[in-house]
Design a protein that fits this description.
This protein is mainly α. The chain has a domain at 12-55. The chain is built from two helices and no strands. The chain has helices at 14-21, 23-55. It starts with 13 loop residues before the first helix and ends in a 13-residue tail after the last helix. Pfam families: PGG. This is PGG domain-containing protein. The chain crosses the membrane at residues 40-58.
Length: 68
Amino acid sequence: MHLTKPLNKDNQTAEELFAARNERLHRDAKEWLMRTTENCTILSVFIATVAFAAAYTVPGGPNQYSNP
């Protein structure tokens, strides 16, 4: 078990080196996640709206031509 963080020749830890080399990938992943979240939110609202309408619609619709 190491109690110190080993440094490379540029005096960076593994975590710092990883963050520096993958900054663009991290930024792209965050943007993709935001777009995906927005799309899923829109889809879930649409599904909830359709489910609500289906739950409160009378099956067969109103019969306007029958005798009471």
